[in-house]
Amino acid sequence: MQKFSWIMFAIVQIAGQQFKVTPGQSLLVNRLQGEVGDTLVFDDVPLVYTDEALQSGQTGKKVKASIQYHTLGKKVIAFKMKRRKGFRKKKGFRAALTCIKIEAID
């Protein structure tokens, strides 16, 4: 079996959620502060896997990412109704999201 040196991933905590990320990956996360093109550094990395070893706990690693764009998620409808009472309530919600691209895991 051939061993590839590009196999690397990390578990990183971004905006209160944990994501499995690899270099070059794009993902949508809850809205982050910053403008398009800004570079972000996430230093809460509980797990890093490289082709040599698996590190967990206080890894001391950092994940660098850049902001691609800001957007809104799909609309979620909350509809409440009580039959025979004439009570209807409809509310919509769209989550504010940020698309980031993972540049490197250092």
Folded structure, characterized:
With 106 residues, this protein is an all-beta fold. It has one domain. The chain contains no helices and ten strands. The strands form three sheets. The chain has a four-stranded antiparallel β-sheet with strand order 2-1-5-6, with no helix packed on it. It has a four-stranded antiparallel β-sheet with strand order 3-10-7-4, with no helix packed on it. The N terminus is likely disordered.
Summary of the model, kept short:
The chain has one domain (9-105).
> What is the mean predicted local confidence, pLDDT?
91
The biggest beta sheet is recorded as: 4 strands, antiparallel
Determine the strand fraction and express it as a percent band.
over 45%
Quaternary assembly: single chain
* Total domain modules: 1
Features:
single chain, about 110 residues, mainly beta, four-stranded antiparallel β-sheet, 10 strands
Topology:
Elements (H helix, E strand, L loop, with lengths): L8 E6 L2 E5 L4 E5 L8 E4 L4 E3 L4 E3 L6 E10 L3 E7 L4 E7 L2 E10 L1
Antiparallel strand pairs: 1-2, 1-5, 3-10, 4-7, 5-6, 7-10, 8-9
